[in-house]
Specification:
eight-stranded antiparallel β-sheet, globular, alpha/beta, six-stranded mixed β-sheet
Protein backbone atom coordinates (compact mmCIF):
# COMPACT_ATOMS: atom_id res chain seq x y z
CA UNK A 1 0.00 0.00 0.00
CA UNK A 2 2.72 2.50 0.96
CA UNK A 3 4.66 1.63 -2.21
CA UNK A 4 1.61 2.48 -4.34
CA UNK A 5 1.31 5.85 -2.58
CA UNK A 6 5.01 6.47 -3.13
CA UNK A 7 4.64 5.72 -6.86
CA UNK A 8 1.63 8.06 -7.03
CA UNK A 9 3.63 10.93 -5.50
CA UNK A 10 6.58 10.17 -7.80
CA UNK A 11 4.33 10.39 -10.87
CA UNK A 12 2.45 13.51 -9.70
CA UNK A 13 3.31 16.97 -11.02
CA UNK A 14 4.63 18.25 -7.66
CA UNK A 15 4.90 22.03 -7.42
CA UNK A 16 7.49 22.02 -4.63
CA UNK A 17 10.85 21.51 -6.42
CA UNK A 18 12.43 19.94 -3.30
CA UNK A 19 10.09 16.94 -3.18
CA UNK A 20 10.77 15.08 -6.44
CA UNK A 21 14.58 14.78 -5.92
CA UNK A 22 13.97 13.44 -2.41
CA UNK A 23 11.50 10.84 -3.70
CA UNK A 24 13.92 9.75 -6.42
CA UNK A 25 16.77 9.48 -3.92
CA UNK A 26 14.93 6.80 -1.88
CA UNK A 27 13.55 4.72 -4.77
CA UNK A 28 15.64 1.66 -3.82
CA UNK A 29 15.28 2.08 -0.04
CA UNK A 30 12.15 0.29 1.18
CA UNK A 31 12.60 1.42 4.80
CA UNK A 32 12.88 5.06 3.75
CA UNK A 33 9.75 4.77 1.59
CA UNK A 34 7.88 3.03 4.39
CA UNK A 35 8.91 5.71 6.87
CA UNK A 36 7.52 8.43 4.58
CA UNK A 37 4.32 6.71 3.38
CA UNK A 38 3.22 3.87 5.72
CA UNK A 39 1.32 6.32 7.92
CA UNK A 40 0.09 9.91 7.76
CA UNK A 41 0.86 12.67 10.23
CA UNK A 42 -1.97 12.61 12.75
CA UNK A 43 -3.93 15.81 13.28
CA UNK A 44 -4.79 16.35 16.94
CA UNK A 45 -5.32 19.17 19.41
CA UNK A 46 -1.67 20.18 18.89
CA UNK A 47 -2.25 20.11 15.09
CA UNK A 48 0.51 18.50 13.02
CA UNK A 49 4.22 18.12 13.64
CA UNK A 50 6.83 16.21 11.67
CA UNK A 51 10.09 16.16 9.74
CA UNK A 52 10.05 18.38 6.63
CA UNK A 53 10.09 16.32 3.44
CA UNK A 54 8.16 14.25 0.91
CA UNK A 55 5.39 11.86 1.91
CA UNK A 56 2.22 11.58 4.00
CA UNK A 57 4.33 11.18 7.17
CA UNK A 58 6.21 14.42 6.52
CA UNK A 59 5.56 18.17 6.71
CA UNK A 60 5.17 19.49 3.17
CA UNK A 61 2.89 21.80 1.23
CA UNK A 62 0.51 18.95 0.30
CA UNK A 63 0.00 17.77 3.87
CA UNK A 64 -0.55 21.43 4.87
CA UNK A 65 -3.13 21.92 2.11
CA UNK A 66 -4.92 18.71 3.09
CA UNK A 67 -5.04 19.77 6.76
CA UNK A 68 -6.27 23.24 5.82
CA UNK A 69 -9.02 21.84 3.60
CA UNK A 70 -10.18 19.82 6.61
CA UNK A 71 -10.07 22.96 8.75
CA UNK A 72 -11.95 24.96 6.09
CA UNK A 73 -14.70 22.34 5.96
CA UNK A 74 -15.11 22.67 9.74
CA UNK A 75 -15.02 26.50 9.70
CA UNK A 76 -17.81 26.57 7.10
CA UNK A 77 -20.13 24.81 9.58
CA UNK A 78 -19.40 27.31 12.35
CA UNK A 79 -21.15 30.53 11.27
CA UNK A 80 -19.50 33.62 12.74
CA UNK A 81 -17.06 35.74 10.76
CA UNK A 82 -15.78 32.88 8.57
CA UNK A 83 -12.26 34.15 9.18
CA UNK A 84 -8.99 32.42 10.12
CA UNK A 85 -5.85 34.14 11.46
CA UNK A 86 -2.42 32.85 10.40
CA UNK A 87 1.09 33.43 11.74
CA UNK A 88 4.41 31.65 11.32
CA UNK A 89 7.90 31.55 12.78
CA UNK A 90 11.40 31.32 11.31
CA UNK A 91 11.47 27.59 10.55
CA UNK A 92 12.32 26.21 7.13
CA UNK A 93 9.29 26.67 4.84
CA UNK A 94 7.15 28.27 7.59
CA UNK A 95 6.30 31.21 5.32
CA UNK A 96 5.57 28.82 2.42
CA UNK A 97 3.24 26.68 4.55
CA UNK A 98 1.48 29.77 5.98
CA UNK A 99 0.78 31.10 2.48
CA UNK A 100 -0.34 27.65 1.29
CA UNK A 101 -2.85 27.51 4.15
CA UNK A 102 -4.11 31.00 3.25
CA UNK A 103 -4.55 29.96 -0.39
CA UNK A 104 -6.69 26.94 0.55
CA UNK A 105 -8.86 28.92 2.96
CA UNK A 106 -9.42 31.67 0.38
CA UNK A 107 -10.35 29.14 -2.30
CA UNK A 108 -13.00 27.84 0.09
CA UNK A 109 -14.44 31.31 0.64
CA UNK A 110 -12.96 31.62 4.12
CA UNK A 111 -11.39 35.00 4.89
CA UNK A 112 -7.78 35.13 6.10
CA UNK A 113 -5.87 37.56 8.32
CA UNK A 114 -2.18 36.73 7.96
CA UNK A 115 0.82 38.47 9.52
CA UNK A 116 3.01 40.09 6.86
CA UNK A 117 6.17 38.89 8.64
CA UNK A 118 6.94 36.20 11.17
CA UNK A 119 5.29 36.70 14.58
CA UNK A 120 5.11 34.44 17.64
CA UNK A 121 2.43 32.16 19.08
CA UNK A 122 0.93 34.80 21.41
CA UNK A 123 0.50 37.17 18.43
CA UNK A 124 -1.47 34.46 16.61
CA UNK A 125 -3.66 33.82 19.67
CA UNK A 126 -4.23 37.59 20.02
CA UNK A 127 -5.13 38.12 16.33
CA UNK A 128 -7.57 35.19 16.46
CA UNK A 129 -9.39 36.95 19.32
CA UNK A 130 -8.94 40.49 17.97
CA UNK A 131 -10.59 39.71 14.62
CA UNK A 132 -13.23 37.39 16.15
CA UNK A 133 -11.93 34.54 13.99
CA UNK A 134 -13.36 31.03 13.82
CA UNK A 135 -9.86 29.57 14.06
CA UNK A 136 -6.16 30.33 13.98
CA UNK A 137 -3.14 28.60 12.42
CA UNK A 138 0.43 28.91 13.72
CA UNK A 139 3.10 27.36 11.52
CA UNK A 140 5.84 26.22 13.92
CA UNK A 141 7.46 23.18 15.51
CA UNK A 142 8.24 25.15 18.65
CA UNK A 143 11.69 24.11 19.96
CA UNK A 144 12.18 20.92 17.88
CA UNK A 145 15.39 20.51 15.82
CA UNK A 146 15.66 22.34 12.50
CA UNK A 147 14.46 19.41 10.36
CA UNK A 148 10.95 19.70 11.88
CA UNK A 149 8.02 21.94 11.19
CA UNK A 150 4.42 21.90 12.34
CA UNK A 151 0.95 23.40 12.18
CA UNK A 152 -0.87 24.36 15.38
CA UNK A 153 -4.62 24.91 15.15
CA UNK A 154 -6.48 27.30 17.44
CA UNK A 155 -10.16 27.72 18.25
CA UNK A 156 -12.13 31.01 18.25
CA UNK A 157 -11.04 31.80 21.82
CA UNK A 158 -7.36 31.85 20.79
CA UNK A 159 -6.74 28.62 22.70
CA UNK A 160 -5.45 25.45 21.06
CA UNK A 161 -8.27 23.56 19.40
CA UNK A 162 -10.51 21.36 21.56
CA UNK A 163 -10.54 17.56 21.21
CA UNK A 164 -14.06 17.68 19.72
CA UNK A 165 -13.17 20.21 17.03
CA UNK A 166 -9.86 18.46 16.24
CA UNK A 167 -11.72 15.16 15.77
CA UNK A 168 -14.10 16.78 13.26
CA UNK A 169 -11.20 18.42 11.38
CA UNK A 170 -9.30 15.12 11.32
CA UNK A 171 -12.34 13.32 9.87
CA UNK A 172 -12.54 15.96 7.13
CA UNK A 173 -8.80 15.64 6.46
CA UNK A 174 -9.20 11.90 5.96
CA UNK A 175 -11.86 12.56 3.30
CA UNK A 176 -9.44 14.83 1.40
CA UNK A 177 -6.94 13.40 -1.07
CA UNK A 178 -3.52 14.63 -0.01
CA UNK A 179 -2.30 15.47 -3.52
CA UNK A 180 -5.41 16.74 -5.27
CA UNK A 181 -8.24 17.08 -2.75
CA UNK A 182 -7.65 20.61 -1.47
CA UNK A 183 -9.11 23.61 -3.27
CA UNK A 184 -6.53 26.35 -3.80
CA UNK A 185 -6.07 29.74 -5.42
CA UNK A 186 -2.99 31.93 -5.74
CA UNK A 187 -2.13 34.23 -2.82
CA UNK A 188 -2.28 37.27 -5.11
CA UNK A 189 -5.74 36.24 -6.37
CA UNK A 190 -6.91 35.87 -2.74
CA UNK A 191 -5.55 39.35 -1.90
CA UNK A 192 -7.22 40.90 -4.97
CA UNK A 193 -10.55 39.29 -4.04
CA UNK A 194 -10.34 40.67 -0.52
CA UNK A 195 -10.27 37.16 0.93
CA UNK A 196 -6.67 37.46 2.19
CA UNK A 197 -5.63 40.53 4.18
CA UNK A 198 -2.55 41.27 6.23
CA UNK A 199 -2.94 41.83 9.97
CA UNK A 200 -3.28 45.59 10.52
CA UNK A 201 -1.01 47.86 12.56
CA UNK A 202 -3.93 48.39 14.94
CA UNK A 203 -3.74 44.70 15.93
CA UNK A 204 0.03 44.87 16.53
CA UNK A 205 -0.36 47.98 18.69
CA UNK A 206 -3.29 46.49 20.62
CA UNK A 207 -1.16 43.42 21.41
CA UNK A 208 1.77 45.51 22.69
CA UNK A 209 -0.60 47.65 24.75
CA UNK A 210 -2.26 44.55 26.24
CA UNK A 211 1.13 43.16 27.30
CA UNK A 212 2.50 46.42 28.67
CA UNK A 213 -0.68 47.05 30.69
CA UNK A 214 0.15 43.90 32.69
CA UNK A 215 3.22 45.53 34.23
CA UNK A 216 2.89 45.23 38.01
CA UNK A 217 5.29 48.09 38.86
CA UNK A 218 4.76 50.55 35.97
CA UNK A 219 7.57 53.00 35.32
CA UNK A 220 10.09 51.18 37.50
CA UNK A 221 12.34 49.99 34.65
CA UNK A 222 12.98 53.49 33.31
CA UNK A 223 15.35 54.29 36.20
CA UNK A 224 16.56 50.85 37.33
CA UNK A 225 19.54 50.64 34.92
CA UNK A 226 19.07 46.94 34.12
CA UNK A 227 21.72 45.48 31.81
CA UNK A 228 20.38 42.65 29.63
CA UNK A 229 21.68 40.11 27.12
CA UNK A 230 18.92 38.68 24.91
CA UNK A 231 18.77 35.91 22.31
CA UNK A 232 15.75 35.23 20.09
CA UNK A 233 17.49 31.94 19.09
CA UNK A 234 17.09 32.86 15.40
CA UNK A 235 13.33 32.87 15.89
CA UNK A 236 10.35 35.22 15.99
CA UNK A 237 10.93 36.96 19.33
CA UNK A 238 13.30 39.78 18.31
CA UNK A 239 10.78 42.40 17.17
CA UNK A 240 8.05 41.97 19.82
CA UNK A 241 10.39 41.39 22.78
CA UNK A 242 12.68 44.36 22.09
CA UNK A 243 9.68 46.59 21.29
CA UNK A 244 7.95 45.84 24.62
CA UNK A 245 11.16 46.05 26.67
CA UNK A 246 12.02 49.36 25.01
CA UNK A 247 8.55 50.71 25.75
CA UNK A 248 8.85 49.95 29.48
CA UNK A 249 12.29 51.56 29.66
CA UNK A 250 14.81 48.73 29.26
CA UNK A 251 17.23 49.98 26.63
CA UNK A 252 20.60 48.47 27.64
CA UNK A 253 20.00 45.29 25.61
CA UNK A 254 22.78 43.37 23.88
CA UNK A 255 21.45 40.92 21.28
CA UNK A 256 23.48 37.75 20.70
CA UNK A 257 24.65 38.55 17.13
CA UNK A 258 24.84 34.96 15.85
CA UNK A 259 21.25 34.31 17.01
CA UNK A 260 19.67 37.65 16.11
CA UNK A 261 18.31 37.12 12.60
CA UNK A 262 15.55 34.59 11.80
CA UNK A 263 17.14 31.37 10.51
CA UNK A 264 15.34 28.03 10.44
CA UNK A 265 18.64 26.15 10.27
CA UNK A 266 19.47 27.30 13.82
CA UNK A 267 23.19 27.23 13.01
CA UNK A 268 24.44 27.80 16.57
CA UNK A 269 22.38 25.15 18.39
CA UNK A 270 20.89 21.97 16.94
CA UNK A 271 18.07 22.07 19.48
CA UNK A 272 16.77 25.68 19.87
CA UNK A 273 15.27 25.07 23.28
CA UNK A 274 15.80 27.58 26.12
CA UNK A 275 15.68 24.68 28.59
CA UNK A 276 19.02 23.43 27.24
CA UNK A 277 22.42 24.90 28.13
CA UNK A 278 23.81 24.66 24.59
CA UNK A 279 21.09 27.01 23.28
CA UNK A 280 22.07 29.63 25.88
CA UNK A 281 25.85 29.16 25.71
CA UNK A 282 26.61 32.11 23.39
CA UNK A 283 24.35 34.37 25.41
CA UNK A 284 26.04 33.33 28.64
CA UNK A 285 29.49 34.05 27.18
CA UNK A 286 28.28 37.51 26.16
CA UNK A 287 26.71 38.11 29.60
CA UNK A 288 29.99 37.20 31.31
CA UNK A 289 31.94 39.59 29.08
CA UNK A 290 29.50 42.47 29.57
CA UNK A 291 28.62 41.86 33.24
CA UNK A 292 24.88 41.80 32.43
CA UNK A 293 22.38 41.47 35.28
CA UNK A 294 20.38 38.96 33.29
CA UNK A 295 20.50 36.81 30.17
CA UNK A 296 17.29 35.61 28.55
CA UNK A 297 16.39 33.58 25.46
CA UNK A 298 13.08 32.94 23.73
CA UNK A 299 12.40 29.84 21.63
CA UNK A 300 11.68 30.07 17.85
CA UNK A 301 7.91 30.66 18.20
CA UNK A 302 8.49 32.89 21.27
CA UNK A 303 6.03 31.25 23.59
CA UNK A 304 8.71 30.14 26.08
CA UNK A 305 11.58 31.96 27.74
CA UNK A 306 14.64 30.71 29.63
CA UNK A 307 16.95 32.80 31.81
CA UNK A 308 20.37 32.89 33.45
CA UNK A 309 20.88 35.21 36.43
CA UNK A 310 24.01 36.86 37.78
CA UNK A 311 25.22 35.64 41.18
CA UNK A 312 27.18 37.66 43.74
CA UNK A 313 30.50 36.15 42.65
CA UNK A 314 29.88 37.26 39.04
CA UNK A 315 29.01 33.78 37.75
CA UNK A 316 25.70 32.99 36.06
CA UNK A 317 23.13 30.39 37.04
CA UNK A 318 20.52 28.92 34.72
CA UNK A 319 17.11 28.78 36.40
CA UNK A 320 14.52 26.11 35.71
CA UNK A 321 11.01 26.82 34.47
CA UNK A 322 9.68 25.86 37.89
CA UNK A 323 12.01 28.31 39.62
CA UNK A 324 11.10 31.18 37.30
CA UNK A 325 7.41 30.32 37.65
CA UNK A 326 7.61 30.47 41.45
CA UNK A 327 9.71 33.67 41.37
CA UNK A 328 7.19 35.40 39.09
CA UNK A 329 4.27 34.21 41.21
CA UNK A 330 5.93 35.55 44.35
CA UNK A 331 6.86 38.86 42.65
CA UNK A 332 3.38 39.43 41.15
CA UNK A 333 1.58 38.61 44.42
CA UNK A 334 3.82 40.80 46.55
CA UNK A 335 3.69 43.75 44.12
CA UNK A 336 -0.05 43.62 43.58
CA UNK A 337 -0.76 43.42 47.32
CA UNK A 338 1.62 46.36 47.98
CA UNK A 339 0.09 48.42 45.15
CA UNK A 340 -3.51 47.55 46.01
CA UNK A 341 -4.09 45.94 42.60
CA UNK A 342 -4.69 42.34 43.78
CA UNK A 343 -8.20 41.28 42.73
CA UNK A 344 -10.68 39.71 45.12
CA UNK A 345 -10.30 35.90 45.25
CA UNK A 346 -7.21 35.77 42.97
CA UNK A 347 -6.45 32.62 40.98
CA UNK A 348 -3.24 31.19 39.56
CA UNK A 349 -3.09 28.07 37.42
CA UNK A 350 -0.31 25.56 36.78
CA UNK A 351 0.09 22.10 35.28
CA UNK A 352 0.06 18.96 37.44
CA UNK A 353 3.72 18.30 36.56
CA UNK A 354 4.86 21.72 37.76
CA UNK A 355 6.37 22.26 41.20
CA UNK A 356 4.19 21.94 44.32
CA UNK A 357 6.23 24.83 45.73
CA UNK A 358 3.88 27.10 43.72
CA UNK A 359 0.89 25.73 45.66
CA UNK A 360 2.65 26.64 48.92
CA UNK A 361 3.62 30.16 47.76
CA UNK A 362 0.11 30.82 46.40
CA UNK A 363 -1.44 29.75 49.72
CA UNK A 364 0.91 32.13 51.57
CA UNK A 365 -0.53 35.07 49.60
CA UNK A 366 -4.15 33.88 49.78
CA UNK A 367 -4.21 32.95 46.09
CA UNK A 368 -6.17 29.93 44.85
CA UNK A 369 -3.88 27.54 42.96
CA UNK A 370 -5.62 25.42 40.33
CA UNK A 371 -3.79 22.38 38.96
CA UNK A 372 -4.62 21.29 35.42
CA UNK A 373 -3.43 18.77 32.84
CA UNK A 374 -0.19 19.37 30.93
CA UNK A 375 -0.67 21.62 27.93
CA UNK A 376 -1.25 25.36 28.14
CA UNK A 377 -4.73 24.99 26.62
CA UNK A 378 -5.88 23.72 30.02
CA UNK A 379 -4.65 26.94 31.63
CA UNK A 380 -6.49 28.79 28.84
CA UNK A 381 -9.59 26.75 29.66
CA UNK A 382 -9.49 27.96 33.28
CA UNK A 383 -9.21 31.59 32.08
CA UNK A 384 -12.20 30.98 29.78
CA UNK A 385 -14.24 29.61 32.72
CA UNK A 386 -13.47 32.69 34.79
CA UNK A 387 -14.36 34.88 31.80
CA UNK A 388 -17.68 33.07 31.33
CA UNK A 389 -18.47 33.74 34.99
CA UNK A 390 -17.65 37.45 34.56
CA UNK A 391 -14.59 37.05 36.80
CA UNK A 392 -11.68 37.05 34.35
CA UNK A 393 -9.81 39.69 36.41
CA UNK A 394 -9.32 37.04 39.12
CA UNK A 395 -6.68 35.33 36.94
CA UNK A 396 -3.27 36.74 37.87
CA UNK A 397 -0.76 34.18 36.56
CA UNK A 398 -0.34 30.78 34.93
CA UNK A 399 2.74 28.69 34.20
CA UNK A 400 4.14 25.34 33.12
CA UNK A 401 7.49 23.92 34.17
CA UNK A 402 8.52 23.86 30.51
CA UNK A 403 9.25 27.63 30.59
CA UNK A 404 5.76 28.85 29.61
CA UNK A 405 4.21 31.84 31.45
CA UNK A 406 1.16 34.08 31.12
CA UNK A 407 -0.19 36.98 33.15
CA UNK A 408 -3.50 38.36 31.85
CA UNK A 409 -6.34 37.13 29.68
CA UNK A 410 -5.52 38.89 26.37
CA UNK A 411 -4.32 35.56 24.87
CA UNK A 412 -4.94 31.91 25.65
CA UNK A 413 -1.44 30.49 25.24
CA UNK A 414 1.92 30.93 26.89
CA UNK A 415 3.66 34.14 25.97
CA UNK A 416 7.43 34.68 26.07
CA UNK A 417 6.93 38.40 25.36
CA UNK A 418 5.08 39.10 28.61
CA UNK A 419 7.31 36.51 30.30
CA UNK A 420 10.38 38.49 29.21
CA UNK A 421 8.81 41.78 30.31
CA UNK A 422 7.88 40.55 33.79
CA UNK A 423 11.22 38.77 34.32
CA UNK A 424 13.09 41.97 33.39
CA UNK A 425 10.79 44.08 35.57
CA UNK A 426 11.34 41.66 38.46
CA UNK A 427 15.13 41.79 37.95
CA UNK A 428 15.03 45.59 37.75
CA UNK A 429 12.97 45.85 40.95
CA UNK A 430 15.25 43.56 42.93
CA UNK A 431 18.28 45.46 41.62
CA UNK A 432 16.66 48.73 42.75
CA UNK A 433 16.28 47.48 46.34
CA UNK A 434 19.81 46.06 46.50
CA UNK A 435 18.81 42.44 45.96
CA UNK A 436 18.79 40.10 42.95
CA UNK A 437 16.73 37.30 41.44
CA UNK A 438 19.24 34.76 42.78
CA UNK A 439 19.02 36.15 46.33
CA UNK A 440 15.22 36.19 46.19
CA UNK A 441 15.16 32.57 45.03
CA UNK A 442 17.38 31.63 47.98
CA UNK A 443 14.94 33.52 50.24
CA UNK A 444 12.00 31.52 48.86
CA UNK A 445 13.83 28.22 49.46
CA UNK A 446 14.79 29.29 52.99
CA UNK A 447 11.18 30.21 53.71
CA UNK A 448 9.34 27.26 52.16
CA UNK A 449 11.88 24.42 51.87
CA UNK A 450 14.50 23.28 49.33
CA UNK A 451 12.35 21.85 46.57
CA UNK A 452 14.17 20.30 43.62
CA UNK A 453 12.38 19.63 40.34
CA UNK A 454 14.08 17.68 37.56
CA UNK A 455 12.88 16.22 34.27
CA UNK A 456 14.39 13.25 32.43
CA UNK A 457 13.36 12.07 28.96
CA UNK A 458 13.53 8.68 27.23
CA UNK A 459 13.32 8.74 23.42
CA UNK A 460 11.53 6.11 21.34
CA UNK A 461 12.20 6.96 17.66
CA UNK A 462 10.90 5.23 14.55
CA UNK A 463 7.57 3.69 13.62
CA UNK A 464 7.68 1.25 16.57
CA UNK A 465 8.38 4.03 19.09
CA UNK A 466 4.75 4.79 19.89
CA UNK A 467 4.02 1.07 20.45
CA UNK A 468 6.95 0.77 22.87
CA UNK A 469 5.75 3.82 24.80
CA UNK A 470 2.21 2.43 24.99
CA UNK A 471 3.57 -0.91 26.24
CA UNK A 472 5.57 0.75 29.03
CA UNK A 473 2.56 2.76 30.23
CA UNK A 474 0.37 -0.34 30.11
CA UNK A 475 2.87 -2.36 32.17
CA UNK A 476 3.07 0.40 34.80
CA UNK A 477 -0.70 0.20 35.15
CA UNK A 478 -0.88 -3.61 35.17
CA UNK A 479 2.03 -4.02 37.60
CA UNK A 480 2.01 -0.81 39.67
CA UNK A 481 5.30 -0.18 41.52
CA UNK A 482 5.00 -0.17 45.33
CA UNK A 483 8.34 1.58 45.91
CA UNK A 484 11.17 3.43 44.15
CA UNK A 485 14.70 3.21 45.58
CA UNK A 486 13.29 2.17 48.94
CA UNK A 487 10.77 5.03 49.13
CA UNK A 488 7.29 3.58 49.50
CA UNK A 489 4.55 4.67 47.09
CA UNK A 490 1.75 6.19 49.18
CA UNK A 491 -0.72 7.08 46.42
CA UNK A 492 -0.97 6.47 42.67
CA UNK A 493 -2.88 9.02 40.59
CA UNK A 494 -3.86 7.59 37.21
CA UNK A 495 -5.20 10.44 35.12
CA UNK A 496 -6.27 8.08 32.34
CA UNK A 497 -8.54 6.17 34.74
CA UNK A 498 -9.21 9.48 36.57
CA UNK A 499 -8.60 7.83 39.94
CA UNK A 500 -6.29 8.39 42.90
CA UNK A 501 -5.56 5.25 44.96
CA UNK A 502 -4.07 4.93 48.45
CA UNK A 503 -1.88 1.85 48.34
CA UNK A 504 -2.07 1.05 52.06
CA UNK A 505 -5.88 0.99 52.21
CA UNK A 506 -6.84 0.48 48.57
CA UNK A 507 -9.16 3.49 48.96
CA UNK A 508 -9.87 5.22 45.63
CA UNK A 509 -11.17 8.70 44.87
CA UNK A 510 -12.11 10.33 41.59
CA UNK A 511 -9.91 12.94 39.86
CA UNK A 512 -12.01 15.81 38.52
CA UNK A 513 -9.99 16.46 35.36
CA UNK A 514 -10.31 15.17 31.77
CA UNK A 515 -8.59 11.84 31.06
CA UNK A 516 -4.87 12.03 30.23
CA UNK A 517 -2.06 9.49 29.93
CA UNK A 518 -0.26 10.52 33.14
CA UNK A 519 0.78 8.57 36.24
CA UNK A 520 1.80 10.36 39.45
CA UNK A 521 3.35 8.49 42.37
CA UNK A 522 3.36 10.27 45.74
CA UNK A 523 6.10 8.81 47.93
CA UNK A 524 6.66 8.54 51.64
CA UNK A 525 8.48 11.68 52.80
CA UNK A 526 6.83 14.01 50.27
CA UNK A 527 8.65 13.30 46.99
CA UNK A 528 6.69 12.71 43.77
CA UNK A 529 7.45 10.88 40.53
CA UNK A 530 5.45 11.65 37.37
CA UNK A 531 5.54 9.51 34.21
CA UNK A 532 4.00 10.99 31.05
CA UNK A 533 4.43 10.37 27.31
CA UNK A 534 5.04 13.63 25.44
CA UNK A 535 2.12 14.86 23.38
CA UNK A 536 4.34 16.21 20.59
CA UNK A 537 7.49 14.06 20.50
CA UNK A 538 8.30 10.31 20.68
CA UNK A 539 9.39 10.58 24.34
CA UNK A 540 8.36 9.47 27.79
CA UNK A 541 9.08 12.22 30.29
CA UNK A 542 9.69 11.64 33.99
CA UNK A 543 9.32 14.49 36.47
CA UNK A 544 10.86 14.29 39.93
CA UNK A 545 10.06 16.57 42.86
CA UNK A 546 12.23 16.05 45.94
CA UNK A 547 12.50 18.10 49.13
CA UNK A 548 15.62 18.20 51.28
CA UNK A 549 17.41 20.21 53.94
CA UNK A 550 19.68 21.40 51.12
CA UNK A 551 20.09 20.96 47.38
CA UNK A 552 22.60 18.10 47.77
CA UNK A 553 20.12 16.04 49.81
CA UNK A 554 17.29 16.72 47.36
CA UNK A 555 19.57 15.87 44.38
CA UNK A 556 20.70 12.59 45.98
CA UNK A 557 17.08 11.50 46.36
CA UNK A 558 16.31 12.50 42.77
CA UNK A 559 19.29 10.48 41.49
CA UNK A 560 18.19 7.41 43.46
CA UNK A 561 14.62 7.67 42.15
CA UNK A 562 15.78 8.15 38.54
CA UNK A 563 18.07 5.11 38.80
CA UNK A 564 15.18 3.01 40.11
CA UNK A 565 12.91 4.09 37.26
CA UNK A 566 15.46 3.65 34.46
CA UNK A 567 15.14 -0.17 34.05
CA UNK A 568 11.38 0.22 33.62
CA UNK A 569 11.72 2.84 30.87
CA UNK A 570 15.00 2.07 29.13
Amino acid sequence: MYKNEYERWLAFDLDDPDLKPELESVKDDDEAIKDRFAVSLKFGTAGLRGVIGAGTNRMNVYVVRQATQGLANWVKTQGGTQTVAISYDSRIKSDVFAKAAAEVLAANGVKVRIYKALMPVPALSFATRYYNCNAGIMVTASHNPAKYNGYKAYGPDGCQMTDEAADVVYAEIQKTDVLSGARTMSFEEGMAAGLIEYVGEDCYEALYQAIESRSVRPGLCKTAGLKLVYSPLNGSGLVPVTRVLGDIGITDITIVPEQKEPDGNFPTCPYPNPEIFEALRLGLELAEKSGADLMLATDPDADRVGIAVRCKDGSYELLSGNEVGVLLLDYICKARIENGTMPKDPVMVKSIVSTPLADVVAAHYGVECRNVLTGFKWIGDQIARLEAAGQVERFIFGFEESYGYLAGSYVRDKDAVIGSMLICEMAAYYRSIGSSIKEELDRIYAEYGRYLNKVDSYEFPGLSGMDKMAGIMQKLRQEPPTEFAGYKVVTVSDYQARTRTELATGKTEAIDLPAANVLIYALEGGATVVVRPSGTEPKIKTYFTTLGKNVEEAQAQKDALAAALKPILA
